[in-house]
Design a protein that fits this description.
Helices cover 37% and strands 14% of the residues. The chain has 249 residues and is α/β, with parallel strands linked by helices. It has one domain: Alpha/Beta hydrolase fold, catalytic domain (Rossmann fold, 3-Layer(aba) Sandwich). It has a seven-stranded mixed sheet, sandwiched between helices. The longest helix is centred in the middle third of the chain and has 20 residues.
């Protein structure tokens, strides 16, 4: 396992399906500590640590979704010899999708299931919520989503630490264009909060067109970061989805 890219919160779970989790814009691997604990011994959770945050804060963050997905796919190659699944939230959903596409295109085994959370399906045009041209707009958007603690946003020193990653991530999302291609063969589960201010249900449902496998849309109570309060429900959706994926593999 590449210790640069992946974090495991607890002991390795031998024989369990590996779930690789991709954080949101500005987020870090630690965002998945609660989910990792909730999944317990049934799933081996690896959280992706993007450059430019936490213990990788001295590294330059990626400013392109394509370049970021290229690097993630390369880091994933040694992990594809055993069954694995992806879970991506918000920006992480885009990176999970694009990383899966690259692995399959390179002839590697694809994920047995892909969980895409808090994000509408990709299209040739960027979401207006991604096109943020200033720090003021970024901070307004982040505060509206509620995913970053106000203690961080209100502390000048902490804010200075997280802003480079936020600028890079939102810049990458604003420049991202889906250019078509073969749908994923893996079954896809899409999760969304019913009060998400930036992702409508029909936008989330449009992921159906990006897989030739089974598709499931799960709508949970909450906003963009519904999973902070619905960890147990998300755990059950994941374990059920992986059970079905395993039985049909």
């Amino acid at each position: 396992m590449d210790s640069t890219w992946f974090r495991r919160f607890g002991a390795a779970r031998e024989g369990a399906v590996r779930l690789v989790c991709f954080p949101h814009a500005g987020g870090a691997a630690s965002a998945f500590i609660p989910l990792s604990r909730a999944l317990g011994e049934h799933v081996d959770v690896l959280a992706v640590q993007y450059p430019g945050r936490q213990d990788r804060r001295r590294e330059e963050p990626y400013r392109s979704v394509d370049a970021h997905a290229d690097a993630l796919a390369e880091a994933m190659v040694p992990l594809t010899d055993e069954p694995y699944a992806f879970f991506g939230h918000s920006m992480g959903a885009v990176l999970a999708y694009e990383t899966a596409r690259r692995l399959v295109a390179a002839g590697r085994p694809g994920p047995c299931r892909v969980f895409l959370s808090g994000r509408g399906a990709p299209s040739p045009l960027p979401s207006p919520h991604d096109r943020l041209g200033s720090d003021t707009e970024i901070l307004r958007a982040v505060r509206g989503l509620g995913g970053t603690g106000h203690a961080v946003l209100d502390d000048p020193e902490l804010l200075a630490m997280v802003m480079p990653a936020l600028r890079a991530d939102y810049g990458a999302l604003g420049a991202y264009r889906w250019s078509g291609g073969v749908p994923l063969a893996a079954p896809v589960t899409v999760l969304i909060g019913d009060a998400d201010p930036v992702v409508a249900v029909d936008e989330a449902a449009a992921w159906h067109d990006h897989t030739s496998g089974d598709f499931e849309l799960r709508i949970l109570p909450g906003g963009h970061f519904y999973l902070d309060d619905r960890t147990d429900e998300v755990r059950d959706i994941i374990t059920d989805g992986l059970l079905v994926a395993g039985s049909t593999a």
